[in-house]
Amino acid sequence: MMLDLLRQLLGPWYLQIKFVHVLAMAVWIASTLVGYTYYLVPVFKAWRRNPQDQEIIALRNWAMERFDQGIIYEHIAFPLIIITGPMMYIAGGWSTATNWLLLKIIIVCLVAIPVEIVDYHISHFGGAKQRLRAAGDAEGYDRAVQRHWMFFLVTSPPIMVFSLLIVFLAVTKPF
Length: 175
What we know:
- The protein is mostly helical.
- The protein has one domain.
- The protein has helices spanning 2-10, 14-49, 54-70, 72-91, 99-124, 129-134, 138-172.
- The chain starts with a helix and ends with a helix.
């Protein structure tokens, strides 16, 4: 059976795969935490208080573009998580009959993956602010910045809760 063959091939590498998975998870969680909390939130609060202040708008735009560049680490880490998770599942002989693992997989599939797909798009593809600025599309740029901020306001609370829950489940295996 193919699963047995994969388990034999991956089994000796389980701890190395787990190391990459845990390291990628730490990068995924931490890479946005500092930038979002200490740069974007204060700048966006100042902008909301003074929406016409050109200095604050310039600072907001600068911070958002730097954030988009820094988020590349998160966007490298997440695919590593998605690749190494199933590898550990196979190598470790895990089963979805294990409730903590099933809950973790559900959270990843229903929360993390959809959020990351949208995040990739608004950070690097259709909503790439740096590209809109370079094209001279000031109106599109401002819409993209505001859309990205709305995305953060909607997704940050559940991602914070669910990412900690994922780590809790993986470490404690409570049920």
